[in-house]
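## Example record

The block below lists the input lines for one assembly entry, exactly as stored, with component labels intact.
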Amino acid sequence: MKIISLDVMNVGIVLAYVVSSYRPGDMPPIIESLSEKYADPIPQAVIITGIVIGFSVLTLLVVLSVSLMERTGKSDVKILERMMKE
Amino acid sequence: MKFHEILLMAQLVSFLGIFERIRKVVLVTLPLFLAWFGYISSDYTAYLIGKFGVMVGMDDFSRSLIVVSSLMFAVIFIENIREKIDFSQYFFFITSALILNFIFISKDFFNIYILLEVLSILAVLMMMKAADKKKLWTSLKYLLIGNVGANIYLLGVLIYYLHTGNFHVVKNGDVPSIALNLMILGLLVRTGVFGFGMWLPQFHSNADKVLSAMFSGIFINGGIYALKLINDIKSVSYMIFLGISLSLAAAILGFFSKDVKRAIALSTMNHLGIMIMNLVNPSLYITAHSIAKTLLFLESDNLKKEEIDISTWLVSLIAIASLSGFPMTLGFKAEHALTKNFPLYLALLVSTSNVIIGASLFKFIWKKVKKGFNGLIIVSLSLVHITSFEFLTVALVFVTLALSLFKPRKTIYLPIESMDINLLFVLGAAVVILWLS
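Predicted structure tokens for the full assembly:
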């Protein structure tokens, strides 16, 4: 559940970056003639790294939670927390 | 030759580690070379790919961080030169060393986000090597809470970009404070300051001694570096009060701990709190903390035993003395330099928090020493008294020792250490920041 929420949060940030690059007169940032207005390419360019990192963190989290499930048989965070204190 | 070019070369050289014979040689000499090159390189700023690309730069602060971190990497690897390491482990170690050095020269907020994330992924991969369920659970917690922090940081970076037009760290007062506040909140979570990143005590205390020395002594410097960059843009006034209250809380929690590694991890939180109080010139304090914490964590397995030998006793005595700011140690100098411009009550509070954490660490080397060595402490302290610095510092030393005789009955855990409440706290803080502005 928390992992899904984290992914939703990540996608939200990515969307915010993509939307922020919008400017009125939104041509794709490919220059055909120099006078045209075009969308800001920088946020789109950098956030692709953010997407990659978000995905790799997500996969790691899934791996960790699956192997935790195998070892303990529990998936509830509260129960796990109590188990780990001892 | 510029330092980022040297880092690239070092990355190429590090692939020599596929040969098992020279793996350890590379592991020890490469950080030493990096420290040397960092020390001799002069100030510069450069852009990696055009004007909008990554901005890197070298100044005094990054130089000191590069030197101390690389040296501590070398110390850790020299200490474990006898142990066998396979290629994957070697690759994680050397890559994290290079990435950390890249953080210290980057002057670009988005780049710092990427590097911090990669560093945390590497940390988790290193932890997963010996996977028992405790380690898995703490790495899950670390990754989840840390990533929430990183996302908040990313939101701040976006607002920063919308106002300035690039991600570079350039001094201008027009940056809206909401961007900086969000970035600071994200970094506090990422670095593991008390209250915001409560994954730290569990994560650092459950790791092996090499890893916890690396995390606690070296990796946290990356977060402090980023906080310093933000403070350079626009000085943040509430940081002093946040820092002192959080460091005091961490110290008191560390005092009620029966586990050595948990106490050391909480001392990291205490010192992080003190570092963020003065972000104008924290380099000496970071150096002192980094050295002492690395040595102490490397000895932490020996401290768990019933009886400890002389070398362990001596090393941990010096490290703890430095951490709690005793006279004649580097920590004393550093604390003095940090609190120079503070009003007296703040300096006293810093000393108090250091005294409490010092007491909580001292009690682990107190009783287990062979006979006669406890006397040595008394003798050396009398020497301190003769060369008398100030009445106050000497009094603080004796208060520390007296406090360390107190033994807590059981370890206290706060409710905020659980994942739910910590996440709730962090997101609540983010909402408050967004709401206020």
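Chain A touches chain B at residues 2-3, 6, 9-10, 13, 16-17, 20, 42-43, 46, 49-50, 53-54, 56-57, 60-61, 64-65, 67-68, 71-72, 77-78, 80-81, 83-85 (CB under 8 Å). The first helix of chain A runs from residue 2 to 20.
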